[in-house]
Amino acid sequence: MPAIPLLLAAVLLAAAPAPAPAAPSPRHAYAEGQVWHYRTRPGEEGSVVAIRRVEAVPELGPVFHVSVTGVKIGDRFGTMLPHLPVSRETLDASVTRRAKGTFDLPPFEDGIAEWRAVRGGVFTLDLAAIVGFVQTSLAGAVLPEDEPKP
Q: What is the pTM of this model?
């Protein structure tokens, strides 16, 4: 066989795309009802995240509907985030160990219903960054009780 076709074949083989790497295995097995400690923002070390519901959404993959307690997001908003839709990547980047004990968790069903109605997305940031984002977003929020009375 002439050298040029062999060289061309070698170049084409070398340029061929490599097979896609296998998807990394999840760090933890997550399930509804689990409560986890996570890498928190400074001063919120007692905060935990609870997995309230897990659902498969074709466009998004698995969606983990979580509640976060023990956060400092402002006096007007309390210390709980009742509903955050997050990805597996969010949980993998955030959780550290399962929490023991019982926790006062807020109702979350209305948040899921609203999320579905607007066809919401999912957060892919780590939980501490999400809490910071929510706090910043709420800082400028005008609540009904802030509106002037006629």
A: 0.77
